[in-house]
Amino acid sequence: MNFTENESVDHPLSWQLVTENTGYISFDQVRRFFHLEPEDIEFPPDIIVFNQALWKKAHFHQGAHHHHRALITESYIHLYPILQSWQLAGVLYGLSPDAIIRIPSYPFPILMEMDTGKETARQWRSKLTTYRLEAWANPRFALWVIAMGGNLRLSRVHNWIVQQKLPVAWHLSRAAQIQPDAAFWESQVENARPASLSPQEDGLPQLWYRELGQQENLSMDEANRRLKEGWAIAAREIISGGLLYYLKAH
């Protein structure tokens, strides 16, 4: 996966950079972080003013999910000083997080997920199950959840994550207390899952691997070797007892 480098991290943060990299900034965020009044800003032609916020046209989508978008922007602004790269709504190993970042204190990709308090337990369990399965089949990555709401909501999200027994480093932060916790991420490097296939644990389905276009399954050692060499998972199939992954050379 080639990350889109956020070249703007070498420059002072501005509301223009925020909208360029997140597609959204609320009037409240403009005031809090940049001490500007929205009516004093001269908007470029690719900005839409809607529902007390500035939207990039490419990310407008009729102004849907504005709470979710505001939380992504809040996270970007707070993490900006340490970001080495930022990819909005990227795709990694079959996962589609809200953002993918890299930071100096953790050498692997960190996938960001936002919780506005409206997501149901069923939605979170489905999402986390996908993370759990992909984590066993792919190189190392981590999960960082930013959650809105009070102690009860954070406790629920925390319990949903714990119940999944994710084989990756993960972190849960309150939306009002987003901060670059370098010490935490440094402590997770040694605990990161080895970048190799692992035997099945209790509750995990069986995994099989096959070269795309072939009829016979690969041994676990051979599949592991190919993944380390950069082979990609081109497709997956749900079969009786587990998942079948099809590998394709780059």
Would you mind describing this structure in some detail?
- The protein is α/β, with parallel strands linked by helices and 250 residues long.
- It has two domains: 7-188, no CATH class; 206-248, no CATH class.
- It contains seven helices and eleven strands.
- A five-stranded mixed sheet has the order 4-5-6-7-8.
- Strand 7, helix 5 (151-164) and strand 8 (170-174) form a beta-alpha-beta unit.
- Helix 1 (15-22) packs across helix 3 and helix 4 runs parallel beside helix 5 (151-164).
- The N and C termini lie close together (11 Å).
- Mean pLDDT is 84; it is low at 195-199.
Sequence of strands across the biggest β-sheet: 4-5-6-7-8
Task: Give the helix/strand class.
Answer: alpha/beta
SSE string: HEHEEHEEEHEHEHEHEE
Rg (CA only): 20 Å
Percent range for helical residues? 25-40%
Q: What characterizes the major β-sheet?
A: 5 strands, mixed
Notable traits:
single chain; 250 residues; alpha/beta; 2 domains; five-stranded mixed sheet; three-stranded antiparallel sheet; 31% helix
